[in-house]
Structures are given as structure tokens and as C-alpha cells.
Amino acid sequence: MPESRARLAELDPVWDRIRAEAEQAILDEPLLGGLIHSSVLHHASLARALAFRISMKLASGEMSEQILREIADEAYAADPDLVQAARADIAAVYDRDPACHRFLQPLLFFKGFQALQSYRLGHWLWREGRHDLAYFVQTRVSEMFGLDIHPAARVGQGIMIDHAHSIVIGETAVVGDNVSMLHSVTLGGTGKEESDRHPKIGSGVLIGAGAKVLGNISVGDCCRIAAGSVVLEDIPPKKTVAGVPARIVGEAGCAQPSVTMDHLLAQG
Questions:
Q1: Which pTM does this prediction carry?
Q2: Which residues sit opposite 174 in a β-bridge?
Q3: Can you tell me whether residue 91 is helix, strand or coil?
Q4: What domains sit in the chain, N to C, each tagged with a CATH number?
Q5: How far apart are CA 268 and CA 265, in angstroms?
Q6: Tens digit of each residue's pLDDT (9 = 90 or more) over 237-264
């Protein structure tokens, strides 16, 4: 790691805040002291804490926590962008989820964040050519958290997956930066073809609960997809779509819907 990057890694306000919140949480609820010490305060960096938390969640009789932790440590050491993505995801959850009051919460309690970081580990393995191990991580994420993201899918930073139940993101899907999606969203295909067959979601997009975006189509930056919609065609940037099949019903209404989290359609 270059010297400048090493110095930057030592300065981590997100990690400093998590540690401060962890210390306060133990004062507020001493019964959680063991969990918080082992998950947060025992570790020198966010990368080490993430490796521990992911390995504890994904471990099973088929693969031990120790082996998974070694794999995660290797990934975070090799690719600092994994930790940067986690920082951006924590900030996104804190900013957009009214149920999140501390940076500590996603790391300890929110399965959307934990599943996303586990996917990121699987995606790193996929890029390294370790496909079978990546598939194993995908399987454990599905079993543990109830959502299924193919390790080959490409997902940006600053992602907020709220509630996270029954999310499906297919193999050739692409998700831009600063996207928010709610439970039961599907980014899927429309048949059994093996080519590029999944949606390309732009940055700043808000995807409502139960929405289905199907096929190799493009959703432009800063769009809103209403809850329960089925999107089968390209959407230009900064539009709101709703219905089955989805149709453009207006403008997005703001610069970045994923941040404002406004799901209501204007009444005409």
C-alpha cells in the first residue's frame, strides 16, 4: 500500500464514530458488552471488524468462522475499496433510514448492510476467479439473510437496502452509486438466455418495495420506481414510473430520489 494511502487508512472518522457509539452502547446496555467488544472494540480497524462480523454470520458446519475470516481479511487487505464501500453504505443507511440513529447499528443489527458487505466479499472472490467459493458465499447470504445477489453482479457504493427481505439481483445486473431499494425488489431476467440479461440501474435511483425490473434494460440516473411496479422497458433519467407494466407518470421530483426517499406520487 502506498505511504499516502497508508496514512489515510489511519484516519477513519467512520470507524472512530462507531467505536465511540459502541462504548456508549455498553454503558446503556451492559448485557451487550460481550457482543460489542467482540464485534467492534476488540478490532483495530473497520476492515477487521467487518471481516469478523461477516465470518460470524456466514459460518456453518460446512465452513468455519476462522476460514471465512481469513478469506475476508485477505480481501480487505488486497482491495481497500471494499472498506470504502462499507463506509459509504453505513453513511447511506444512517442518512436515509429513519430507524437508524447510530453508525453502529448497520454493523451490528441491519441485515441489509451485513448482506451487502457479504456480497462484496463474494464479488471480490468472483473477480479473483474463485467462482466456487463466491457461489458458496452467495448461498450462505441467501440462507442467512433471505436475499440473493449473484457474485458477478456489479453494485456501486452508498447503497441502502431497507428491510432487505427477498431482494434478488441477477448475474449481469449493474447497480450504480447511491441507490436505495426496499424489500422484495427483483432485478431479474426475462428468460433462460445466458447473455447479458439483467437490468442496468443508474445512480441515485429509488426502487420501491416489491418492484420488479426485468431484462437487459436501462434505468436512468435519479429515477423513481413506484412500489409494486413491473419495469420492462428503458427509463430515461429523472423520471417516475409506476404500474404493471410500468409507465412514465411524471418527473422524479428532486435531484436524487434515493436520498430524499419520497415514495409518494403527486396527485393530479
A1: 0.92
A2: 154, 200
A3: helix
A4: 12-145 (1.10.3130.10), 153-267 (2.160.10.10)
A5: 9
A6: 999 999 999 999 999 888 889 998 888 7
> Apex CA 55: angle with CA 35 and CA 69, to 5°?
110
Burial label, 174 (beta-carbon count in 10 A; 0-12, 13-18, 19+): middle
Q: Among 22-26, 31-35, 220-224, 264-268, which is the least confidently predicted range? A: 264-268
| 76 Cβ contact partners less than 8 Å away, ≥ 6 residues apart | 47, 48, 50, 51, 82, 83
**Counting runs of H as helices and runs of E as strands, what totals does the chain give?**
10, 15
Residue 168, classed as helix, strand or coil, is: strand
Query: Cα(25)–Cα(29) distance, rounded to whole angstroms?
Result: 6
Residue 83 three-state SS: helix
**Which residues sit opposite 240 in a β-bridge?**
224, 250
**Sign of CA pseudo-dihedral 79, 149, 177, 260:** negative
**What is the number of other CB atoms lying within 10 angstroms of the CB of residue 225?**
27
pLDDT of residue 193: 78
Q: Would the pLDDT of 151 be above 90?
A: yes
From the number of C-beta atoms within 10 Å of its C-beta (0-12, 13-18, 19+), residue 261 rates as: middle
CA distance 179 to 176: 6
Measure the CA–CA gap between 257 and 85, rounded to whole angstroms: 20
Q: Kindly report whether the peptide bond that precedes residue 151 is cis, defined as omega within 30 degrees of 0.
A: no
- Strands 247-251 and 239-242 come out as antiparallel
Q: Are β-strands 148-149 and 218-219 bridged in parallel, bridged antiparallel, or unpaired?
A: unpaired
